[in-house]
Design goal:
Strand content: 5-15%
Largest sheet: 5 strands, parallel
Order of helices and strands: HEHHEHEHEHEHHHHHHHHH
Number of helices: 15
Radius of gyration: 24 Å
CATH architecture of the largest domain: 3-Layer(aba) Sandwich
Strand order of the largest sheet: 2-3-4-1-5
Distance between the termini: 59 Å
Helix content: 40-55%
Shape: elongated
Bound molecules: zinc ion
Structural class: alpha/beta
CATH class of the largest domain: Alpha Beta
Length: 347
């Protein structure tokens, strides 16, 4: 039987992977009729916060999940099923992003500006078009500037009827305490490595070692694991780590050239530093617990290099990477910062 394209799959609570504690709480809210006006879903990117928010929007609006539907044959009320059906017109519209009462707000160029929040306030002043519950999903709420956050605060202080606000952010500490205090915060945890490996092996048709490597490098994030299986990313990682491994045997000009190449794109540089960090970590870990290395495919190179560099030097390299990561967050000259780091890695 033909299956629907994956991006349109109406994921319900039962489809969310490895977030049982959060799902249990959400189901209890629904079953007891105690859903708060505002929720904050906190956790690293790519672990199901937005998918869960959408599943919740479906659960509160599913046509097979109405209070009327939840009565027994004598008309006595029963607890509504605490999940959406995933098939009715309301569920499908929400999954297809065509439901007029499920409003999604996302940052533009990494900033959520006040204009979007003002538009939202105008929108919620009117009644929902067709939904029982209007759902407003504000992704990456930590990207709100101060003006936008203050405008949202007014909405949180006087929540409109039949409106559920769901904010997502990596850390609750990234948001103003006044916003956090008005939301019920639910923490999403990174996926278990084995479950993540199984998931991406099935989705991307990968062999088990490739899936396990991506799952290990991704630190529990599904989107990151999927990105790491892209052929370009796989090749870049191999090139980068092999180059780093050989830097000490090369003239300093090579280190400077690599720094220049990587400094061309800040996001790519951030990812590159993370990869190098796992590699240097592995060089240290190899001596004490070789089974716990992350870069499983580079075991031979790690075994070879780990024996040549004293642990104190490796730890100094690790610290230098962390320092560069901090500098990058503080908007210093990226190329100079990377040049300093790569010269240190080459020493
Ligand atoms: Zn439904």
């Amino acid at each position: 039987m033909a299956t629907a394209p994956r991006r349109l799959k109406p994921n319900v609570f039962a489809d969310i992977i490895d977030q049982e504690p959060v799902i249990r709480i959400l189901r209890a809210y629904l079953a007891n009729g105690t859903l708060p006006h505002a929720l904050l879903f906190a956790g690293i990117p790519g672990i199901g916060k937005k998918t869960t928010a959408q599943a919740l929007a479906m659960a509160v609006n599913c046509l097979h999940n109405t209070p009327q539907a939840a009565t027994d044959t004598d008309g006595r009320p029963q607890t509504p099923a605490a999940d959406a059906c995933g098939h009715c017109i309301a569920c499908r519209k929400i999954a297809n992003r065509t439901h007029p009462d499920v409003i999604r707000i996302e940052p533009e160029n990494r900033v959520l500006r006040i204009g979007r929040i003002r538009d939202l306030c105008t929108q919620v002043a009117m009644k929902p078009y067709e939904a029982r519950h209007r759902v407003i999903l504000i992704s990456d709420a930590h990207t709100m500037n101060a003006e936008a956050a203050n405008a949202l605060l007014k909405l949180l202080e006087e929540p409109p009827d039949c409106t559920l606000l769901i904010l997502t952010a990596a850390e609750r500490s990234d948001l103003l305490p006044t916003i956090v205090s008005r939301c019920q915060c639910l923490r999403f945890t990174p996926l278990d490595r084995r479950k993540l490996a199984e998931l991406i092996a099935a989705r991307q048709h990968l062999d088990p070692p490739a899936a396990e490597l991506a799952a290990t490098l991704a630190g529990g994030s599904v989107t990151k694991a999927e990105a790491l299986t892209d052929a370009d990313v796989v090749n870049f990682r191999r090139w980068l780590l092999t180059t780093i491994d050989q830097l000490p045997a090369q003239p300093p000009a090579v280190a400077l050239a690599v720094a220049e190449e990587i400094s061309k794109d800040k996001t790519a540089a951030t990812d590159a530093l993370e990869l190098i960090q796992t590699y240097v970590r592995d060089l240290v870990v190899w001596r004490y617990a070789p089974k716990k290395i992350i870069n499983l495919d580079l075991q031979a190179a790690i075994a070879h290099s780990a024996s040549k560099v004293p642990v104190a030097d490796l730890l100094a390299r690790y610290e230098a990477i962390q320092k560069t990561q901090k500098e990058m967050g503080a908007n210093v000259n990226l190329r100079l910062s990377l040049e300093r780091l790569f010269l240190k890695l080459a020493a």
